[in-house]
């Protein structure tokens, strides 16, 4: 249940941004979650709704932006979509791949007032 | 996690005392929340770009830990596994074999109890217990506090026994030199595919309890193949912590890693001297 830690870290970023930018209410939070990032989205939604209680983000809607997984094959250099960390390169069948997208856990934007 | 200073929640205990106790200053956003009830619909909505990684703060703490350890030539290894893989037994046997040549300290992570720390202390080395309460993993901030509390020797080794969990600790960099994943042969060959993040994050896998193989249908070749699908560069050593089989290869791996840490410290020291 590391989603609770992630939700707490998200709230911390939101509160720091509120102090820096002077907003008093968060209406929407857009968070990018990579397909390969080991985050259970429903658990994150639940944890977020719990930790924001009594804060500027109490009524915030959490919008999750799915980032598909993408890798570069170490052997043939081809780039391809992957959905798990053990997908082989579709071009040459090699398992040695570098993940180039899909690991993200990042707050991208907020709607505030 | 505390939103004022970023410290762990009051659920986190280090050797029985709360990690941080301080008054929270609610002058920030929580006051704003009160404001929210008093003044409704005052502001205009606007979009603000944030572009911040959710674990950026943890990663900064991890980098601080890593730098501190590097300056003192200390090798930190983060041992991760599911509960019951034999981590503590393996750690105790490792300490017994190496403690005459190497100064060793241990950070134990568990949700509750200090039983593992007591087992480690029985070997004579320092061990600090972190109880995470409801938390399912250690983070870099807790480990930073533990490093400060331990009396770590120059050129020593620091082992972290993480909370038994094959999922959550994978995403949290603690500042370790390597994650070492321990899998026991009683767990099933498909664990690397079921929990790929941990096997991807690790540099070494210890396949433990190999003395039980004659009594099980566990396929060693298959688990190695699965582990290498997830992480082709993962090194794998087959061991039995209780019988000692394969353990010398693990000890040699530690000695090589420790040698790298000491060498890296020399490089840092000579760079500092050159710039003086």
TrEMBL record, chain A:
Pfam families: HypA. Keywords: Metal-binding, Nickel, Zinc. Gene3D superfamilies: 3.30.2320.80. InterPro entries: Hydgase_Ni_incorp_HypA/HybF_CS, HypA/HybF. Ni(2+) binds at residue 2. Zn(2+) binds at residues 73, 76, 89, 92. GO terms for molecular function: nickel cation binding; zinc ion binding. The keyword Signal does not apply. Transmembrane segments: none annotated. GO terms for biological process: protein maturation. Belongs to the HypA/HybF family. Involved in the maturation of [NiFe] hydrogenases. Required for nickel insertion into the metal center of the hydrogenase. This is Hydrogenase maturation factor HypA. It comes from Nitrosomonas marina. The lineage of its organism: Bacteria, Pseudomonadati, Pseudomonadota, Betaproteobacteria, Nitrosomonadales. The gene is hypA.
UniProtKB/TrEMBL annotation, chain B:
NCBIfam families: hypB. Belongs to the SIMIBI class G3E GTPase family. HypB/HupM subfamily. This is Hydrogenase maturation factor HypB. It holds the Pfam family cobW. The keyword Nucleotide-binding applies. GO terms for biological process: protein maturation. Keywords: GTP-binding, Hydrolase, Metal-binding, Nickel, Nucleotide-binding, Zinc. It comes from Nitrosomonas marina. Signal peptide: none annotated. SUPFAM superfamilies: P-loop containing nucleoside triphosphate hydrolases. GO terms for molecular function: GTP binding; GTPase activity; nickel cation binding; zinc ion binding. Residues 78-237 form the CobW/HypB/UreG nucleotide-binding domain.
